[in-house]
């Protein structure tokens, strides 16, 4: 089966409850892929469904984990008529989606994302990536989920760091989208945010669904214009050039690195006179109110993180020769794709960065 570059229709991404999903799946032809923690929490909603467990977090995105998952495809006699259901965060949907794409040249793939990051971003858009040789997301494919099952109640069991991590992508989408979306997030953060981050356990499901819905609209809208990232889709990499390098260099959660990446990209834009001080401060304030880091100096007192991240910037997939396709935020709602010399970005990171 060929990978389907179409964006899922709105019907395929309605909000639902996990308990209602199993009835919509064929238990003889669906393999649930998850990790032990998520399976212990939510596996009971899928009685009778065959399942395979892969390691938690980034360890799921290794060649070893992929090989073990493909072994379980053999054990369960998965053939081309089967589908994989990824139940979990972005690392589960990345690996399960990639495995579904390469198995017998492509079998069906559905996702039930259980982290804010996966609901807002990782599980939609069809990109599935594995890490290799110490580099992040360098192996991958496009394989679009045929269905998304979105239950925001699963977010209640997330660790605060995981929830905050997802907010970084939600805020990224708000910056790309414009004033109304961004102001909604500011209002949400004022109500539920504080020094310790967001109190999402007391947040009504409707507010969580709004965050997810707005994010999905932005991401899927951009993906629809450019499914295979030849141009506009690059906008979704806002904060990711610095972010990926920092994530790998510092071993920090993806969203924390994206938050620092957005802070750095905005500060860089400000340093070039391309962003107003007031927009910069709004962006930094919103990230911080959601419990996200915005100051590299605060997490890198001896400068070693910057040095390591600088080396890794050279491996950025967005680099072409000496130039990086850099995503430059100018205003909330106005973001540009610009080719910037990698040396200039390195110098900003090492000398001026936030
Ligand atoms: N493919 C894409 O387009 C895309 C986009 C953004 C990020 N990503 C990738 O996503 C990965 C990060 O994913 P993530 O942040 O969703 O986390 P994750 O999948 O790495 O999971 C992190 C931890 O949260 C736990 N967890 C997940 N759901 C839970 C729940 N409901 N309750 C309690 N614990 C839960 C997991 O067991 C795991 O221990 C990164 O590898 C990143 O590169 C991919």
What does this structure look like?
Helix 8 crosses helix 12 (304-313). The protein is globular and about 60 Å long. The N and C termini lie far apart (47 Å). A hairpin with a 2-residue loop joins strand 8 and strand 9 (323-331). It has two domains: 10-156, Rossmann fold (3-Layer(aba) Sandwich); 159-352, Dehydroquinate synthase-like - alpha domain (Dehydroquinate synthase-like, alpha domain), CATH 1.20.1090.10. The chain is 45% helix and 16% strand. By secondary structure, it is α/β, with parallel strands linked by helices. It has helices spanning 36-42, 63-75, 90-102, 116-122, 160-177, 179-192, 205-225, 240-250, 254-271, 277-289, 296-299, 304-313, 342-352, and strands spanning 30-34, 51-53, 83-88, 108-113, 127-132, 135-142, 147-148, 319-320, 323-331, 334-341. The longest helix has 21 residues, at 205-225. A five-stranded parallel beta sheet has the order 2-1-3-4-7. It has a three-stranded antiparallel beta sheet with strand order 8-9-10. The site of nicotinamide-adenine-dinucleotide (NAD) has 31 residues, from helix 1, helix 3, helix 4, strand 5 and helix 5.
Q: Structural class of the helix and strand makeup?
A: alpha/beta
Straight-line distance between termini? 47 Å
Strand order within the widest sheet?
Answer: 2-1-3-4-7
Mean pLDDT: 91
Total number of beta strands: 10
List the secondary-structure elements in sequence, H or E: EHEHEHEHEEEHHHHHHHHEEEH
Report the principal-axis shape.
globular
CATH topology of the largest domain: Dehydroquinate synthase-like, alpha domain
The CATH class name of the largest domain reads: Mainly Alpha
């Amino acid at each position: 089966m060929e990978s389907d570059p179409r964006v899922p229709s709105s019907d395929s991404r309605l909000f639902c409850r996990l308990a209602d999903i199993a009835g919509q799946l064929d238990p003889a032809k669906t393999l649930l892929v998850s990790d032990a923690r998520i399976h212990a929490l939510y596996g009971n909603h899928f009685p009778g469904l065959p399942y395979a467990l892969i390691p938690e977090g980034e360890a799921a995105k290794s060649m070893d984990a992929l090989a073990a998952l493909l072994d379980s495809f053999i054990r369960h006699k998965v053939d081309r008529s089967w589908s994989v259901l990824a139940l979990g965060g972005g690392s589960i949907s990345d690996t399960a989606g990639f495995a579904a794409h390469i198995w017998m040249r492509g079998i069906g793939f559905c996702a039930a994302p259980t982290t804010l990051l996966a609901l807002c971003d990782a599980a939609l858009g069809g990109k599935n990536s594995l890490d290799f040789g110490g580099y992040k997301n360098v192996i991958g494919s496009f394989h679009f989920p045929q269905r998304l099952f979105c239950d925001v109640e699963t977010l209640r069991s997330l660790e605060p760091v995981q929830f905050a991590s997802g907010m970084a992508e939600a805020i990224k989408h708000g910056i790309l989208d414009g004033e109304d979306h961004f102001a909604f997030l500011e209002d949400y953060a004022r109500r539920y945010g504080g020094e310790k981050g967001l109190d999402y356990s007391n947040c009504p499901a409707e507010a969580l669904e709004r965050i997810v819905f707005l994010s999905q609209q932005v991401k899927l809208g951009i993906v629809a214009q450019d499914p295979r990232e030849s141009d506009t889709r690059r906008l979704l990499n806002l904060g990711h050039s610095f972010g990926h390098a920092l994530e790998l260099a510092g071993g920090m959660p993806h969203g924390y690195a994206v938050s620092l990446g957005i802070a750095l990209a905005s500060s860089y834009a400000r340093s070039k006179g391309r962003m107003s001080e007031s927009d910069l401060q709004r962006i930094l304030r919103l990230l911080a109110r959601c419990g996200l880091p915005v100051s590299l100096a605060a997490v890198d007192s001896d400068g070693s993180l910057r040095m390591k991240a600088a080396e890794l910037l050279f491996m950025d997939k967005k680099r072409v020769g000496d130039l990086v396709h850099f995503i430059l935020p100018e205003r909330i709602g106005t973001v540009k794709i610009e080719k910037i010399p990698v040396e200039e970005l390195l110098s900003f990171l090492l000398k001026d960065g936030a």
